[in-house]
Design goal:
Blueprint (H helix, E strand, L loop, with lengths): L4 H6 L3 E7 L2 E8 L1 H34 E4 L4 E4 L7 E2 L2 H12 L13 E8 L5 E6 L9 H11 L4 E2 L1 E3 L2 E3 L1 E10 L4 E5 L3
Antiparallel strand pairs: 1-2, 3-4, 5-8, 6-7, 6-11, 9-10, 11-12
Length: 190
Amino acid sequence: MVLDQNIIKLYPISKMLIYTNNIMKTVGLILPMYRLVINEYNLLIIIMFSAFSCSSLKNQQESKLVQYDNLTRRYVYTFVEQMPNYKGGDIALVTDFAKYFHYNFQPNEDVQTKFEVQFVIDTKGHLIGARIYNKRTKILTKFEKSGLKALALLQSWEAGKYNGKNVNVILTKTINVDYNRSIIKDDASK
């Protein structure tokens, strides 16, 4: 690029310097009046890029936390800041489940002692959409149907919260039934 001698006399040329690996390098010659425009333009680009990046990242993170539940026909969170809790804690959950769960095995029937349940706690703290995890309703055993019936009666939940708002949250729990001791345990590991 050829510069006009008059411009050089009117505007002192300054060097744009970049520091890399503790070595200063001259990138080019920029007139001061253009240097300000370039800096403001670059700053605008950086701010816009940062804003879109943060917004995009937040949407990606939130989209991983939210899924559509076909059974309840609602969008549900898989993990939130404050997960839903049964009023009275896990001991009350197990006690109330034991109160409602009644099943007598038939003589030729295999004894089943655990099942994995999945359900949604809605924004009002109601348990909805109870199901056996990864199993179709048509192939449920009578034992599993009795467990779902008892689970559906447990409606004393505190709703989950995300960003200070009550949200629908899907939970998966394993329930173990111990017939020898007549105790029902909730495996809180899931």
